[in-house]
Design a protein that fits this description.
The complex is a heterotrimer. Chain A is an all-alpha fold. Chain A contains 14 helices and two strands. Among the domains of chain B are: 70 residues, no CATH class; 161 residues, Rossmann fold; 84 residues, P-loop containing nucleotide triphosphate hydrolases (Rossmann fold, 3-Layer(aba) Sandwich), CATH 3.40.50.300. A six-stranded mixed sheet of chain B has the order 6-7-8-3-9-10, sandwiched between helices. In chain B, strands 16-19-20-13-21-22 form a six-stranded mixed sheet, sandwiched between helices. Chain B has a four-stranded antiparallel sheet with strand order 2-1-4-5. The longest helix of chain B is centred in the first third of the chain and has 16 residues. Classes of the chains: A mainly alpha, B alpha/beta, C mainly alpha.
C-alpha cells in the first residue's frame, strides 16, 4: 500500500497530512473528471497557444502574417532545440542547467572553426558540447551527484571555457564571408529558415525516440522509478550518460546554428537560457519530477513563449521586459494548474 | 545467547573450499560472505537451488535473506565465495546480467514503473520492434494480453500501472519475470500485500511455473504458505546458514526454533511477551471518537478510550487500523466524524491540534515518519515539545536537558549520549527515542502503531512492559499490532476492524487468540490467520516492510500441506526427485498425497475471479 | 542480538576523510589561501585589500545566509538575484521620502517575493526549483518594468554613506553582514523556528506528525530569504551608487548556492551551517582575487569555481553513502 502511494504520487511532496495511503480498492477505472484532467494536462498548452494566436490575429493586423510567423519561428527555433534535449533530461527526473553556457560555447566554437570549413564548424562544437554533456552525465550517473549541482558547475565551467577561448570575451570570431556554414543560418525554404526546419526535423525524430524506441522507454522508466528500472535490468547509468550527452549535443547544435545565423560567435548570449528552456518544458506539461512528458508539449511551450514575446513587441508601447513578467506569471499559472490537475487525475 | 542446537551445528559448518557442483543445481552460492561497514551481513553461506524445486528461504529480521537474494540476483557482489550458475562459476555485476542468465526477481514492494502502462512495464528493456526498428505497440499489447490472460488476469495493457490494484500490479511483475525465459524466479515475500484470493492466484501461477521446470526461491514469513508450496527450506540466522533440507523433514515448531535460535520448549511456552496482568480502567472515557469516515478507508468508526486501559485495535491488512490511529491524531483528513478529548470536541483536526488536546501517536513507519536521522537524540526527543521548552521562541537548553535526562534514564535509551545522532542508534533505541518524544508531552492518550515491529527482542520486552506501566499510571493507550500474541496479552480490550469498519469487540475473558481469530474470520471473504502469526512480525532486512506483516494473520487457512503441493509433486518428479534424492536418502520430495494429477488448487472462483480488482 | 540494519557504526576511512572535509574543509581552504597569499602575493595581506575583499563578499554572504536556511529545508531559491534587482528598482522611487521609508519598501518587496515562493512551496506543494523559477524569470522583468529599463543614479547621501562609510574602521556593509550572520546562527541554533526548520528539512513527514507548524515555517524561511536578498540588493545598490535592475544580482543565485554548498550544508536538507556558509562565500571571493592578482583570468576563475563546487558536492555525497 505504501509502495502504491509513493508510486502514484509523482508530484512534488504533497502536504503530508493529505498523504494518506490510497485505498487499494479504489475503482481503478478513470472517471470522466480524471479523463478531462488528463486531456487538459496533455493538451492544455496547445489549446492556450491556439486561442492566443486566434485572438491575436484579430487584435493585431500584423500578427497573422507570413513575415511575422517566420520571425516567431526563427526566434523560437534555437530555444526549441535546447528545450528538446532538456525535455529528455527532465523526463529522467534530472535537470541540465548548463545548456545556456553550452549554447554560447557552441556558437563561439562554430564561429571559430568556420574558418576551416563547413564540417569543422559543425563538428567541433558538437564534439566539445557533447563531451561536456557526457561529463555531466558521468557525474550524475556514476558518481551519484545531484544533477542540479553538477550542471550548475558545468554552467560555470563552460562559460569559463568560452571566456578562455575568446580572450576573456575580447575576441568575437566571425564566420567568414561566403562560408557555406553561414548559409545554414540564413538560408530558407519558402521563407522559413533552415534552423526552423532543422528544429522541426529534430522534434519529429525526438518524438519517435521518446515514444517508440527502447531508449525512450528507458528514459521514462528511469524518471518514473529509478530503483525499479535498475532492478528490471535497464542500463540506468548508460541511459543517464546518454541523455545528458544528448542535451549537450543539442545545445551545442543550437549554438552553432545561432552563430551561423548571426555570422559570429557572440559571447554574451545564452545567459539564463537554461531557465527559459526549463520553463518551456514545464509549460509543455512535462513533469519536473520525471517519468512523464512529451516532446510535442515542449514545442508548444516554446512557441507560446515566442508568441508572448512577439505580442509584447506588437504592443509597441510596452517595455520589452514585460515579456519576462508575463512568462513568469504564466509559469506560475501552469505549474499550479498542473499540480491540481495531476491531483485530479489521481482522484484525490 | 542459546548455543545453536545439534541440527544447526550439523549443517552449519561450511563445506570444503570448492565442493563439486551439486547435481541438478541451477544456482549455487558457495561459501559466500558479504560485509557492510560494521556488520557481517552474510558469513560463509552456501546455498543450492535445484532444478525445478520450490525452495523456501526463511530467517528472522537481519538474518541475511535480503542480502543473499541480492547476491544471487546481481545487486551486490560477494566479498568472498562464488556463485555458480548451472555448475559454472560466474558472477553478476549488474541485475541485468542476472536477468540475461535467466534469473528473475519479484520484490516485496512492486518494483515497476507506476506511470508507465502495463504493457510497457512488462516489455521494458526488450520491446518488440517493427521493421523500422521502432516499438511495435500493437504486438506488445497483444502479447501482454495473452500473457496476463494465461494467468487469468484481464487488465487493459494500455492502462498506467498505478491505476491497478496492488495485487494486479504484483501479477504484472510476475508476468514480467516469467516472460523473460526465466530459469529461476526469486520471490521476496510476494504475498505480503496480497489479498487471500490474490494469493490463490499467485500460487496457481507458481504451480504452472513449477510444472514448466522453473526453479523458485521463495521467501516468506508465513508458515502456511511455505508448507503448502515449498519442497526444501534453507534457514539463515544472523548471517549464517543454520539449516538446509527437505521441508517435509522439518516440522513447524522446529523450523521456528531454528529461525529464532531458541529451544523448542521455549517457543512452545505460551506467554512470551512482557505484559503483566490487566489494568483497572476509569469509567469516564478520556477519548471518544464517533462516526470517523473517510472515503474508501474508514466507515463510521466509533471508539472510546478510558484512562488506564490498553485498547487493542485488531484487524487484517487494509482493515483501517493505521488509518484510524492517524485519524485520531489528526494526520488523516476525514470526510466526517467527531473526536473529543476529556469531553471537549476537537474543532480542527490537525496533528498539532491533536497534540495540544493530549493525543500523541507513535507512527508505524519509524524511519519515514518518526525519526529525524540527522538530529541528535536530545533534539529528536524534544521535537514536539519544543515550544513548551522555550521562551519567546528561544530554546532553553537547561529545560531540554532535564527532560532528556529523565527520559533517557526511564526508557533506558542506549546511546553514546544525548548528542549522538539518532540515525546511528539501533532500531529499538530509535523507537524508545520516539516514545520519549511523545511521553514528554505528557499526553492523555497514546496511540501506538506497531510499537515493537522490527526491534530486537530485548527492546521489545522493554517497550511492552513500558506500555503496561504507562497504562498503570493512568494513561489511555491504543495498541495496534499485527502480532496477535502481543495484542492479546497487551490489551485489556480489543476492537476489531474489518474493511474500515468496526467488526466486533472483545472484552474480559474473550481477549484471547482464538476469540480474536474467530472475529477476524467472521465473514467468508477473508480467511483467518494461523496461530503462528506471531513469528511473522519481524520486518525484513531492508527495514521497509510497511504493512508487510500486517496481513500475516490473513494467510490461507489450510495449514496442512496444501493441494498445490499435490499437483506439483507428481508433475515434476524427475528433477525434484533427483535433487532431493542426493540430499537425503529418504523422502521422495514433498509428502505425496492422494489425488494425483488433480488440479483443484483453485477451488471455486478463487482462481478465475483473480486479482483483477479488489472486492471492496 | 542482531543489530538493526541502520545502526551500523560507520567508520571506514574514506567516509571519515569526507566527513572531516565537509566539516572543516572550507576553513582549511580559506586558511591555506591566506597563507599562500601571505607568502606569494605582494600587497595581499594588507588591511586595505582584505577590507576590499570583505566589502565585495558581503552581499553574497547576506544572500547566502538566506539560501542556507532554504537549503536546510531541502529547498532552493532561484529568485534571489531577481529579488535583489527588484529591491534595487523600487529603492529610488521612495528615496524622496528619506532613506528609511524607501528601505522599508525595498524590504517589503523581498517579503512579498518570499511570500509568493513560500506559498507555492508550502501551500501548493510545488517543487522549490519550479516555484522559485517563476519569480526568477518574472522578478527581474518586473524590476525592469518598474525602473522603465533604466539605470538610475542614487543621489541620497544617507544611502551612499551606507555603502562607503565605516564604523571603527569596519565598513558598514561588512558590519551588517557580520551581524546578520550572527543573528542567523542564533536563529538556527537557539530558536524554535530554527530547530523546527532543520527538523523539517531532515524529515518532513515526521515533523508534520510531531505537530510542527510545517507550512508556517516553510513560508517563514522563504520570506527570510527574500528579505535578506532584498537587503543585499539595497547594499549593492548603495555600493554601485546606482540602481541597475538589468544587471544587479545577476547569477547571484549561483554564487549563493555555491557558498552554501562549499560551506558544507548538504543539499538534501536537515542541516544548516552558518559559519561554513560565510566561509564558503569568503573562499570563493579570495580564490577569485588570488587568481586575478596572479594574472589568471576570469575564465580560469570560473573553471576553478566549477571544480570546487564539484569537489564539495562529491565530498558530501561520499559522506552520505555509508
Amino acid at each position: 500500500m505504501k509502495a502504491l502511494v509513493k508510486a502514484t504520487a509523482p508530484a512534488p511532496a504533497p502536504a503530508v497530512a493529505g498523504d494518506a495511503p490510497l485505498p487499494v480498492t479504489a475503482d481503478p477505472r478513470p472517471s470522466g473528471r480524471q479523463r478531462a484532467a488528463e486531456l487538459l494536462q496533455r493538451q492544455g498548452v496547445l489549446a492556450v497557444l491556439v486561442l492566443l494566436c486566434v485572438i491575436s490575429s484579430f487584435v493585431f493586423d500584423s500578427f497573422a502574417t507570413l513575415d511575422n510567423t517566420r520571425g516567431i519561428t526563427i526566434q523560437a527555433s534555437f530555444l526549441s532545440i535546447v528545450a528538446l534535449g532538456m525535455t529528455m533530461v527532465i523526463v529522467t527526473g534530472g535537470i541540465d542547467l548548463s545548456v545556456g553556457s553550452v549554447f554560447a560555447l557552441g556558437g563561439v566554437l562554430a564561429a571559430w572553426a568556420s574558418q576551416y570549413g563547413f564540417l569543422p564548424a559543425l563538428l567541433v562544437p558538437l564534439a566539445v558540447c557533447g563531451a561536456i554533456g557526457a561529463f555531466n552525465g558521468f557525474l550524475v550517473a556514476k558518481a551519484g551527484m545531484a544533477p542540479f549541482i553538477v550542471t550548475l558547475a558545468s554552467l560555470l565551467g563552460a562559460r569559463g571555457l568560452l571566456l578562455a577561448l575568446t580572450h576573456e570575451g575580447a575576441t568575437t570570431y566571425l564566420v567568414p564571408r561566403g562560408s557555406a556554414f553561414k548559409e545554414l543560418g540564413s538560408g530558407a525554404v519558402w521563407g522559413f529558415g533552415y534552423p526552423v526546419l532543422i528544429a522541426l526535423a529534430l522534434f519529429a525524430v525526438g518524438g519517435l525516440v521518446l515514444q517508440r524506441t527502447s531508449f525512450g522507454q528507458a528514459l521514462f522508466a528511469v524518471g518514473g522509478s529509478g530503483d525499479a528500472a535498475l532492478l528490471m535490468g535497464l542500463p540506468v547509468a548508460r541511459t543517464k550518460v546518454l541523455v545528458y550527452t544528448l542535451s549537450g549535443l543539442l545545445a551545442g547544435l543550437a549554438g552553432a546554428l545561432n552563430a551561423a545565423r548571426l555570422s559570429s560567435g557572440v559571447t554574451i548570449i545564452g545567459v539564463g537560457m537554461e531557465l527559459d528552456a526549463i520553463s518551456a518544458v514545464v509549460i509543455g506539461g512535462t513533469l519536473l519530477v520525471g517519468g512523464a512528458g512529451s516532446v510535442s508539449g515542449t514545442l508548444w511551450g516554446v512557441l507560446l513563449l515566442g508568441v508572448i514575446q512577439n505580442l509584447i513587441n506588437q504592443i509597441g508601447s510596452l517595455n520589452s521586459s514585460y515579456q519576462s513578467v508575463v512568462s513568469g506569471g504564466f509559469l506560475i499559472v501552469v505549474v499550479v494548474a498542473q499540480r491540481y490537475l495531476s491531483a485530479a487525475r489521481r482522484g484525490t | 545467547m542459546a548455543p545453536p542446537e545439534a541440527a544447526a551445528a550439523q549443517s552449519a559448518p561450511p563445506g570444503p573450499p570448492s565442493p563439486p557442483p551439486a547435481p541438478g543445481a541451477v544456482l549455487e552460492a558457495v561459501g559466500v560472505s558479504k560485509r557492510f561497514p560494521g556488520v557481517v551481513a552474510l558469513d560463509d553461506v552456501s546455498f543450492t537451488l535445484r532444478q525445478g524445486e520450490i525452495h523456501a528461504l526463511v530467517g528472522e529480521n537481519g538474518a541475511g535473506k535480503s542480502t543473499l537474494i541480492k547476491l544471487l540476483t546481481g545487486v551486490y557482489r560477494p566479498d568472498d565465495g562464488e556463485l555458480r550458475l548451472a555448475g559454472e562459476p560466474g558472477a553478476f555485476h549488474h541485475p541485468h546480467e542476472a536477468q540475461r542468465a535467466g534469473i528473475s526477481t519479484i520484490y516485496q514492494e512492486v518494483n515497476l514503473v507506476p506511470l508507465m502502462s502495463v504493457a510497457r512495464n512488462i516489455f521494458l528493456g526488450r520491446e518488440p520492434k517493427n521493421r523500422f526498428g521502432l516499438i511495435d505497440f500493437p504486438r506488445m499489447h497483444r502479447e501482454t494480453a495473452e500473457l496476463l490472460g494465461g494467468f487469468g488476469i484481464t487488465a487493459d495493457p494500455r492502462r498506467p500501472l498505478h491505476t491497478l490494484g496492488i495485487g494486479t500490479q504484483q501479477m504484472v511483475a510476475l508476468a514480467r519475470a516469467v516472460s523473460v525465459q526465466a530459469r529461476v524466479v526469486v520471490m521476496d515475500e510476494p504475498t505480503s500485500s496480497l489479498e487471500p484470493r490474490e494469493v490463490e492466484t499467485l500460487f496457481r501461477v507458481i504451480g504452472e511455473l513449477h510444472e514448466r521446470g522453473i526453479s523458485i526461491l521463495y521467501v516468506s514469513h508465513r508458515m502456511d504458505e511455505l508448507y503448502r508450496i515449498c519442497d526444501r527450506v534453507t534457514v539463515l540466522r544472523d548471517g549464517r546458514l543454520v539449516h538446509s533440507g527437505d521441508l517435509a523433514d522439518t516440522d513447524r515448531v522446529r523450523l521456528v526454533s531454528l529461525m529464532l535460535g531458541r529451544e523448542i520448549a521455549e517457543v512452545r511456552r505460551h506467554g512470551a511477551t512482557s505484559f503483566g496482568e490487566g489494568h483497572t480502567a476509569d469509567r469516564q472515557p478520556v477519548l471518544t471518537a464517533s462516526g470517523l469516515t473517510r472515503r474508501h478507508q474508514l466507515q463510521d468508526i466509533a471508539l472510546e478510550l478510558h484512562p488506564g486501559e490498553v485498547l487493542g485495535l485488531g484487524g487484517l491488512l487494509g482493515s483501517g487500523r493505521s488509518e484510524t490511529a492517524k485519524a485520531l491524531s489528526g494526520a488523516l483528513p476525514l470526510d466526517g466524524g467527531e473526536i473529543s478529548v476529556g469531553g471537549r470536541a476537537l474543532r480542527r483536526l490537525t496533528p498539532s491540534a491533536a497534540i495540544r488536546a493530549g493525543i500523541s501517536m507513535l507512527p508505524e513507519d519509524r524511519k519515514a515518519e518518526g525519526i529525524v536521522p540527522g538530529l541528535s537524540v536530545r533534539e529528536n526527543i524534544v521535537l514536539a515539545a519544543m515550544p513548551r521548552l522555550s521562551r519567546a521562541g528561544i530554546v532553553s537548553r537547561q529545560k531540554q536537558d532535564r527532560i532528556v535526562e529523565i527520559f533517557m534514564k526511564r526508557l533506558r535509551i542506549k546511546a553514546a549520549g544525548p548528542e549522538q545522532k539518532v540515525g546511528e542508534l539501533s532500531g529499538g533505541n530509535q523507537q524508545k527515542v520516539l516514545l520519549a518524544r511523545w511521553l514528554c508531552l505528557e499526553p492523555k492518550v497514546l496511540l501506538l502503531d506497531e510499537p515493537t515491529r522490527g526491534i530486537d527482542v530485548g527492546a521489545k520486552a522493554e517497550v511492552q512492559s513500558l506500555i503496561d506501566d504507562l497504562a498503570g499510571e493512568g494513561l489511555a493507550v491504543l495498541l495496534i499490532s499485527s502480532d496477535i500474541e502481543e495484542l492479546v496479552e497487551g490489551a485489556d480490550r480489543i476492537v476489531v476492524l474489518r474493511a474500515g469498519a468496526v467488526a466486533g469487540e472483545l472484552t474480559g475473558d474473550d481477549v484471547e487468540e482464538n476469540a480474536l481469530l474467530a472475529v477476524l474470520a467472521e465473514t467468508g471473504d477473508s480467511d483467518d490467520g494461523d496461530s503462528h502469526s506471531d513469528f511473522g512480525d519481524s520486518t525484513d532486512d531492508a527495514g521497509e516492510a510497511p504493512e508487510a506483516e500486517a496481513e500475516a494473520a490473513a494467510g490461507p487457512q489450510d495449514a496442512a500441506p496444501g493441494p498445490l503441493t499435490k499437483t506439483t509433486a507428481p508433475d515434476a518428479p524427475p528433477e525434484s526427485a533427483a535433487g532431493t534424492g542426493t540430499g537425503t536418502a529418504a523422502a521422495p520430495a514433498p509428502p505425496a498425497d492422494g489425488e494425483p494429477q488433480s488440479t483443484p488448487d483453485t477451488p471455486g472462483g478463487a482462481g478465475s475471479a483473480t486479482a483483477k480488482e479488489d472486492p471492496r | 542480538m542482531t543489530a538493526a540494519p541502520y545502526s551500523l557504526p560507520r567508520g571506514i576511512d574514506r567516509p571519515r576523510v569526507a566527513d572531516w572535509l565537509q566539516r572543516y574543509g572550507v576553513y582549511a581552504a580559506v586558511a591555506a589561501l591566506l597563507i599562500f597569499n601571505w607568502i606569494f602575493t605582494d600587497h595581499f595581506m594588507t588591511t586595505d585589500n582584505l577590507r576590499t575583499q570583505l566589502v565585495q563578499v558581503s552581499p553574497v554572504v547576506i544572500v547566502a545566509l538566506g539560501m542556507a536556511l532554504v537549503i536546510g529545508t531541502e529547498g532552493v531559491d532561484l529568485s534571489v538575484g531577481s529579488t535583489m534587482a527588484l529591491a534595487s528598482s523600487v529603492l529610488p522611487l521612495y528615496l524622496g521620502y528619506g532613506l528609511l521609508p524607501s528601505l522599508l519598501v525595498a524590504l517589503l518587496a523581498g517579503i512579498l517575493v518570499g511570500l509568493v515562493n513560500g506559498s507555492l512551496v508550502a501551500l501548493v506543494g510545488l517543487q522549490p526549483i519550479v516555484a522559485t523559477l517563476a519569480l526568477f524569470v518574472g522578478g527581474r522583468g518586473l524590476a525592469l518594468v518598474i525602473a522603465d529599463g533604466q539605470l538610475k543614479q542614487i543621489e541620497n547621501q544617507n544611502l551612499l554613506d551606507l555603502g562607503t562609510n565605516s564604523v571603527i574602521g569596519i565598513p558598514i556593509v561588512v558590519l551588517i553582514a557580520g551581524v546578520l550572520a550572527l543573528l542567523v546562527a542564533f536563529l538556527v541554533q537557539r530558536t524554535t523556528f530554527g530547530r523546527q526548520l532543520v527538523a523539517i528539512g531532515g524529515n518532513r513527514a515526521a515533523a508534520t506528525l510531531a505537530g510542527l507548524p510545517v507550512k508556517r515555517v516553510l513560508i517563514g524561511v522563504y520570506v527570510l530569504c527574500g528579505v535578506l536578498a532584498s537587503l543585499a540588493g539595497v547594499l549593492a545598490t548603495a555600493r554601485l551608487t546606482a540602481s541597475d535592475p538589468s544587471s544587479l544580482g545577476n547569477l547571484m543565485e549561483l554564487s549563493a548556492i555555491t557558498a552554501v554548498v562549499v560551506g558544507g550544508t548538504p543539499l538534501t536538507g536537515g542541516s544548516v551551517r552558518v559559519l561554513g556558509t560565510v566561509f564558503g562565500a569568503l573562499l570563493m571571493q579570495l580564490l577569485h582575487a588570488t587568481l586575478v592578482t596572479h594574472n589568471l583570468h576570469d575564465s580560469t576563475a570560473q573553471m576553478v569555481q566549477a571544480g570546487i563546487i564539484l569537489v564539495a558536492v562529491y565530498v558530501a555525497r561520499e559522506r552520505r553513502s555509508r
